[in-house]
Amino acid sequence: MHSPSIQVFVALVLAATSVVAAPAPAPTAAPSPWEIEEALKERAVEKRADKCTFSGAKGYSLASKSKASCSTIILDSLKVPAGKTLDLTKLPDNTDIIFEGETSFAYHEWEGPLFSVSGKGITVAGTSGATLNGNGPSYWDGKGGSGGVKKPKFFQAHDLTDSLIEQITILNPPVQVFSINKVKNLVVAYVTVDASAGDAKAKNTDAFDIGSSDGVTIKGAKVYNQDDCVAVNSGSNILFTGGLCSGGHGLSIGSVGGRKDNIVEKVSFTDSTVTKSVQGKYFQTIRVKARAGETGAIKSVIYSGITMSSISKYGVLIEQNYNGGDLHGTATSDLPITGLVLKNIKGSGAVASKGYNVVVTCGSSSSCSNWSWSGVAISGGKKYASCTNVPSITSCY
Predict the structure, then answer these.
(1) Is the bond preceding 33 in cis, omega lying within 30 degrees of 0?
(2) Neighbouring residues of 202: CB distance < 8 A, sequence distance ≥ 6
(3) Are 280 and 213 within one domain?
(4) Is 108 a catalytic residue?
(5) What's this model's pTM, rounded to 2 decimal places?
(6) Domain span at residue 13?
(7) Would you say the C-alpha torsion 21, 24, 25, 30 has a positive or negative sign?
(8) Could you report the per-residue pLDDT of 143-178, keeping only the tens digit for each?
(9) Are residues 183 and 289 both part of a single domain?
(10) What is the rounded distance in angstroms from the CA atom of residue 30 to the CA atom of residue 28?
């Protein structure tokens, strides 16, 4: 049974995601930092039985073996050996995991993940100054997940219910960071992903990839990377708010299509900044990607209060002809994009002169419908000449 404080905290934050179901374009404000801080303080002072501390190289194996008997697991400067997952899956309900110092992961060419967690009522937290260091420079070769050395994915957050991840700092991820899949009511608060040291050679360092989940709130994230800040591939009732995305590919829906689950519904990106989006082949602030020739649906997606600067290629890119690359071939109509809202999007002079301010490629007028755009001010780039079936409420410019 949840403690009152964690119930209040999760309820407060997840309440903000309910607004995406409403037709009004402006989402309800997320809970204030003060409300979150107070709830976390209450959670922190609870008396917990069976507190276990694991440290160093020996602590790795002991933590996995002892996880069922510890209600609070403290990982102090843990050293995870090469080719091994720090496996904290199938935890007892209401287990707390606390990272202290630097958790390091030895080099090994494999798929990962480096860390995995699952359970109900789980809290994963970092103390001040704590980091999880993925040893990225040893892997970065400019090829990411598409070639070169095999690189482990980092943080697998699957099968979590009514859970919280907060104040975690991920440093130097080899490739993708948070894989959030099959979760119900997860709050991710004040997390930092820092792959800035890899600007020359790191690739595919997506911060948050979300799939097949219902009720995910990401609040106050700071991301410095070379790929999507957040990508929602499937799921519903998802909120990304108060975030900073620097160096990567911005705020993305998809690509959607070609998976078992191809529905994205009720997603909001609010009050966030995207800057220095210049890495790799695709660099933009807002991107909605429907795969050409596939079926599914993208419904009720809101972008509100987004500020962009230093964008190399696209300010806004909405496409129904994604095929692994942007704007390839003919746009198709079997994966409609409906109820798309853009409100108060600020990007005066934000796009490079060789880039494009707004690009829309739809398969038909009916496959891109019921859109609402207001206060969209993006400039600096040029007009894209091959837009198709653009809804009347906007234009390519």
Answers:
(1) no
(2) 136, 140, 144, 195, 225, 226
(3) no
(4) no
(5) 0.90
(6) 1-227
(7) negative
(8) 999 999 999 999 999 999 999 999 999 999 999 999
(9) no
(10) 6
